[in-house]
């Protein structure tokens, strides 16, 4: 295991939780292992492992970028991760207001819907 992959796996577990990572690892096949390794090394072992900004800020940026680009599939996962990164529901709401202004109200509105549903599932009253 490379240093970057090892660091990436450590950060990935810290942010997403062991249960999520264990499920993802168990679901890997020969087909997608190279892709999963790339994500672990680059996204988690480089970007998320950097100490240039906090994990709280990375959570806010990630949710905003996912919403702004219309990649809604991972928003719930990253909302759940806020319990470990320190981004509050208020932080996420503020980030999604930026999305509304700079990327469009429909995308921000849809992301807010996902966030509200996810917080409700998490037992977090908003």
Helix and strand arrangement:
Elements: H1 3-16, H2 18-27, H3 33-47, H4 55-68, H5 75-85, H6 89-103, H7 105-122
In which range does the helix fraction lie? over 70%
Largest sheet geometry: none
Number of E-state strands: 0
User: Which ranges are low-confidence, i.e. pLDDT below 50, for 5 or more consecutive residues?
Assistant: none
Q: What radius of gyration results from the CA coordinates?
A: 15 Å
Summarize the structure in words.
GO terms for molecular function: peroxiredoxin activity. This is Carboxymuconolactone decarboxylase-like domain-containing protein. It holds the Pfam family CMD. This protein has about 130 residues and is mainly alpha-helical. The protein has two domains: about 1-50, no CATH class; about 55-125, AhpD-like (Up-down Bundle), CATH 1.20.1290. About 75% of the residues lie in helices and about 0% in strands. The chain is built from seven helices and no strands. It has helices at about 5-15, 20-25, 35-45, 55-70, 75-85, 90-105, 105-120. Helix 1 packs across helix 3, helix 4 runs antiparallel to helix 5 (about 75-85) and helix 6 runs antiparallel to helix 7. It is globular. The mean pLDDT is about 95.
């Amino acid at each position: 295991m490379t240093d970057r992959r090892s660091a990436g796996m450590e950060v990935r577990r810290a942010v997403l939780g062991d249960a999520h990572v264990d499920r993802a690892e168990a679901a890997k096949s020969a087909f997608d292992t190279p892709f999963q390794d790339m994500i672990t090394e680059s996204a988690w072992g480089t970007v998320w492992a950097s100490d240039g900004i906090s994990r709280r800020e990375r959570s806010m940026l990630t949710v905003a970028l996912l919403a702004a680009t219309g990649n809604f599939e991972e928003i719930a996962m990253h909302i759940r991760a806020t319990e470990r990164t320190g981004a509050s529901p208020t932080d996420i709401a503020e980030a999604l207001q930026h999305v509304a202004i700079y990327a469009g109200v429909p995308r921000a509105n849809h992301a807010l819907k996902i966030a509200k549903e996810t917080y409700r599932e998490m037992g977090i009253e908003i």
